[in-house]
Every structure is written in structure tokens, then in C-alpha cells.
Amino acid sequence: WLSMENIVELLSEKGHDIVVLVPEVNLLLKESKHYTRQIYSVPFGQEELENRYRSFGKNHFAERWLLNAAQMEYRNSMIVIDMYFTNCQSLLEDSATLSVLRQSKFDALFTDPALPCGVILAEYLGLPSVYLFRGFPCSLEHTISRSPNPVSYIPRCYTQFSDKMTFPQRVGNYLVNYLETYLFYCLYSKYEDLASNILKRDVHLPTLYRNGSIWLLQYDF
């Protein structure tokens, strides 16, 4: 949202009508003259939200090494991903909110696809989608968007390697790369059931991501 807010304000100044979809419990999505908020309910409170983010931030500084880094990152990511899965489930089962969104006939949907809810919603509403993206907890955004990402030259998440890798580092980089698809499945597989329920068909989540119209990656390729 910190990145998207600037874009929303500029679009608003150019005359676009913008609706921001907001859970009733949140940290930053406050009222503004630049947009209208569409609020939906979630089954957790402000204290739980803040406690989970506090734990998530603190755990980023925990000591780790190559062989346990992915496992530690997975456990840490699940602190917030579990909560936002509940958030997404609440939204996609909220028939009143979905009805308002369908009737509004939007032109496009902006979302951070690190969590798949916006991706699923764009498909449900039949809208082109713009991804504002810092990256997955694995490097599959390159595979999904079909951009080059050779494992011999580009270090993977958690390795802390530079682009000047020794041969043992390249081997380690390859092994981490080999686990990324499995990590993606562990983090996001539950969303496939949500997507299948609302879209009334079997859904392969990486295929759904490929329907994104524009990827705005927020890092130096």
C-alpha cells in the first residue's frame, strides 16, 4: 500500500474514480479525499494484527544459515500469511461486497500479488490487473512472468550470495532454486481451493498469475 498509495493519488488527480478494498482491521488504509473505501469484515482484531506483524518483523533479524534459511523464512511468513488467508476467505465469501464490486464495472484492479487474493478477485471480476510487487518468498515471479532468471548467475532468496558465485555457491543456489516450487506450494496451495470455489473450476495458481497485465517489480532486476 505504501507504494500503491502514491499511484492512487496521482490517478485520482487525473480524474479517475478509485475504490480501495479495505478490511475493517488494518494498519494503514485510512480515509482519504483521493479514494472511496469499500470495507469488509474479518474475524480478527487490531491487537492480533499488530502482534503478528511485530513477531514477523522481529523474526527477520533471527540468525540463520543456508540449510535452515528457507525453513525459517517459511515459518516466519506463515505468521502473516495464515492471517491474510483468513482475510481473503472472509472477502471471497462476502456476497454483499462481491455484488457491489461486480456492479461497479471497474476498468482495472491494482494489487500486491505476494498474497493471491487480488489475483483471484481480478479473475472473478474479469478485470485486467496491475501487480505492484516486491517479490515472493521465493523467486517464482520470474518464472511466472516468463522473464530470464538463470540460476548460474542470479542468487536465490535466503542465500545471501552475490552475482559472483563460486562453484560450491552455484551448487547451493541450484538446490535452493529446486525447492522454490515446493515452497510456493506450501505457502499458497490453500488459495487454490478458495479460487476454485469462487471461479467454479479447477485452478492452478501459477497459471492464474500469468493473467496479470503489468508487473511493476519494486527492485533492480
UniProtKB/TrEMBL annotation:
One of its GO terms (cellular component) is membrane. The keyword Transmembrane helix applies. One of its GO terms (molecular function) is UDP-glycosyltransferase activity. This is UDP-glucuronosyltransferase 1A6. It comes from the Eukaryota. Belongs to the UDP-glycosyltransferase family. It is found in: Membrane. It is a single-pass membrane protein. Its main location: membrane. The keyword Glycosyltransferase applies. Gene3D superfamilies: Glycogen Phosphorylase B. Keywords: Glycosyltransferase, Membrane, Transferase, Transmembrane, Transmembrane helix. It holds the Pfam family UDPGT.
